[in-house]
Write a structure and sequence with these properties.
Layout lengths: L28 E3 L5 E5 L9 E2 L6 E2 L4 E4 L8 E2 L4 E11 L2 E11 L20 H10 L12 H4 L10 E6 L8 H8 L1 H15 L3 E7 L3 H14 L6 E7 L8 H9 L14 E5 H10 L8 E7 L7 E6 L4 H8 L6 E5 L6 E2 L13 E6 H8 L11 H5 L6 H9 L3 H6 L11 H5 L6 H19 L1
Parallel strand pairs: 1-14, 9-10, 9-12, 10-11, 13-17
Antiparallel strand pairs: 2-8, 3-5, 4-7, 5-6, 7-8, 13-14, 15-16, 15-17
The protein binds iron/sulfur cluster (2 copies).
Length: 454
Amino acid sequence: MKLVSWFRGEAFQRGVHPPECKLTAKMPIRRLPFPPRVIVPLSQHIGKPPRPIVKVGEEVVRGQPIAKAEDWLSVPHHAPVTGVVEFIGLKPGQRGPWVESIVIRAHPGATQEDLWGQPRDLAQASAQDILQAVWDAGLVGLGGAAFPTHAKLSVPKQAKVHTLVVNGCECEPYLTCDHRVMVEQADDLIAGIRYAMRATGAVRAIVGIEDNKRDARDALRAAIARAGEIPEGEIHAELVPTKYPQGSEKMLIMALFGVEIPAGGLPVSLGMVVNNVGTLAALGRLLPQGRGLTERVVTVTGPGVARPGNYLVPLGTPLRWVLDFAGTPQEDFEVVLGGPMMGQAAASLEVPITKGISGVLVLPSAELARRESGKTYPCIKCGECVESCPMGLNPSMLGMLAAKREYDLMGSHYHLGECFECGCCSYVCPSNIPLVQQFRVAKQILREKALAAR
Ligand code: SF4
Ligand code: SF4
């Protein structure tokens, strides 16, 4: 397959420019204290939940596998703290319904070093060995997608990959965890990129970074220079325009190469694989240690947070513990998991931080009410949503069909499947029509219908 030439650094068409609000961009990553208990939901990723391999009453050490992958699209979980398994059963989930979870009571006096895993030399490891190591580490996309990383790095037999595209855009307002990872963990990220290149066969890697994070670009270029000449190929760090949703795969590839992923296709059809910087930095750190994922960097921010910051949080830490530490008001606020554009309101403060949560955004209740359930007005056919949709869809028409429950028509004639729920259309709509929420419901109904038909 021919290497697509680069680099253009041009903005994709449409999209929006929401206020950046990156209050924590200069705040170094700090470790959050361990909570008394962690709650590890089995389902934290796209695919089948793993199966518990520990029992109630069992002592576990930090990093020990506690749940085993059930099939190819499943990943294991590791104990985030040293302690005793207190409960296995249903606990509140992020989206409302309760989900099967493992609760571990932390030993207050025990060291919280990672006590599991053996350092290993991966210098001569094959692509298959690396994929297996990624799988064993329980890695999923830390940018929010939570797709199992080993599956994402597995290239189908009939395909060939030449380029690893590394997403360092972090285009969501407020979020800065990826920014800090690039600045502070640049060497881990370069190590992870090299493993990913070997797993996929890519001969070049390009980190795309929005041009509001020049310090991240400089930190990565310094780390690339420190790595020197590498057998895998070339690594580059380049700026792309700051614009939402620059971090989506399609938009980033368009900005870097000026080529478009065909409708319904994947980057691999162009010889590319896309991964997020946080995921690859974790991969670079964990693989040589033979360890699993037990913590992640989370941006805790928003108006009213007394100590906003980028915190290294043990997975399974309840939101209430995070917010008590960060200092939030006790009432009149709502919590969004992720950024303001694509994040979703937390169902309760008892839900835990999971692998896919990159941000905890605390907004005044009045603001969220305006965004999510405030008064809506009829569509005035202004066309703002059409102008903003980066996928070239007609959100106004889709919204009207959703209101009439014409879900099949939305899928068959108006390309609902191409909508990746970026929220641009809802953001610009002067009538405050909750377009993206309607599209989520429609997609869920179509998925259920397809499942029932099978
Ligand atoms: S229709 Fe979907 S892809 Fe287009 S702007 Fe709305 S949410 Fe984004
Ligand atoms: S932005 Fe809102 S009001 Fe304007 S056309 Fe789209 S749905 Fe209608």
